[in-house]
Amino acid sequence: MKLRRLVVLALMALLVVAVIPANAQDKMVLKVFAAYATPIEEPWDGVIHAALEKAKEAGTIEYDYQDNIGYSGDMEVVLREVAEEKQPNIIFGDAFGNEEAVRKVAKDYPEIAFVFGSGLGPSEPNLSVFDNWIHEPAYLSGLLAGSLSKSGKIGVVGGYPVPEVNRIVNAFIQGVKEANPKAEVLVTFLNSWFDPAAAKEAALAQVDAGADVLFAERFGVIEAAQEKKLLAFGSMSDQNELAPDTVVSGPVWNMQPTIDYVVKEVAAGAYTAQDLKDFSMMGKGGAALAPLHDFEKTIDAKVLEMVTKREQDIKDGLFRVDINENTPENAVVPEAAAS
């Protein structure tokens, strides 16, 4: 009897030892660092930061970051210091304007997963790329804007006339024109990723030209709309809380599907360099139309029905929003950005 008990205890001990590695792997907490060129108040980087914070709260990662790094060569310095001193499992960030620096450092640290927003392709063995493919909800925002404008003039203020921004603006224009074929869309680019004062000034100029609805592709436009008591559409995140009586909706980017996928792959030892664009589209939950909040009570029911149907058609794969990455016609483009 004593021998049998010893055998049973030994078997139980073996089972516990066998189970621990699997559980430990499931609960692996990865070290993640994020390097942002702009302040995290800028919506593009803010969306990435918010998703990483959520993963941190869920206990799947340890998270640290540095923002407002800029474009003068400091990105390479920061990334090398982080790779050497913090030795994270993953580094997230935005490579736009810092492509060479990011790719150079990634190549020197193949044991770290580099996952950066970029307009270029992935690079073996460890640099994956993503982008904010929010042209679909931008189109839906355009449907709403075209329906809500009384003057028939709608203003758009964007960062740079680069493909990644152009496809959002063009999709918005597509929606406007579908809702109101006679509408005129005024487009101004800032030649900057983050300049709220210049964005506000550009928006006010569009208002002076007759625009009564504004699309804030860049931060600063909503302030102008609120000041003039006009309707506006945010971008990247639900920005209604900035001006509840002004911000109707807008295209929302959700980085959670991308981050969850990368963390899972790295934890499993299965990470490879790849283009992660699909995770930022509506089909995988990476993009959405922001809630209408109280505006849902005031917008015409037929307009809401039209937008809701289009939204479902996109999710079901029955309707595709055009991907047009050319600079919009008649856009006001600063000379430096046009060259």
Number of helical elements: 11
Query: Quick one: CATH superfamily of the largest domain?
Result: Response regulator
**Per DSSP, what share of the residues sits in E-state strands of 2 or more residues?**
15-25%
What overall geometry do the principal axes of the alpha carbons give? globular
Oligomeric category: single chain
Head-to-tail CA distance between termini: 88 Å
CATH A-level architecture of the largest domain: 3-Layer(aba) Sandwich
- Name the poorly predicted regions: 6-25
Strand line-up of the largest beta sheet = 2-1-3-4-5
The count of DSSP E runs of length 2 or more, i.e. the number of strands, is: 12
User: Please, how many domains?
Assistant: 2
Using only C-alpha atoms, the radius of gyration works out to 23 Å
Top CATH class of the largest domain: Alpha Beta
The structural class is alpha/beta
CATH topology of the largest domain: Rossmann fold
Helix content bin: 40-55%
Largest sheet: 5 strands, parallel
Order of helices and strands: HEHEHEHEEHEHEHEHEEEHEHH
Q: What is the residue-averaged pLDDT?
A: 91
Describe the structure.
With 339 residues, the chain is an alpha/beta fold. The chain has two domains: 29-130 and 255-284, Response regulator (Rossmann fold, 3-Layer(aba) Sandwich), CATH 3.40.50.2300; 135-250 and 290-338, 3-Layer(aba) Sandwich (Rossmann fold), CATH 3.40.50.2300. It contains eleven helices and twelve strands. The chain has helices at 2-26, 43-57, 74-85, 99-108, 135-148, 163-179, 196-208, 221-228, 256-267, 301-315, 335-338, and strands at residues 30-35, 61-66, 90-94, 113-117, 127-130, 153-158, 184-189, 213-216, 231-233, 247-249, 251-253, 287-289. The strands form three sheets. The chain has a five-stranded parallel sheet, with helices on both faces. Strands 7-6-8-9-10 form a five-stranded parallel sheet, sandwiched between helices. α6 links the parallel β6 (153-158) and β7 (184-189). α5 packs antiparallel against α10 (301-315). It is globular. Mean pLDDT is 91; it is low at 6-25.
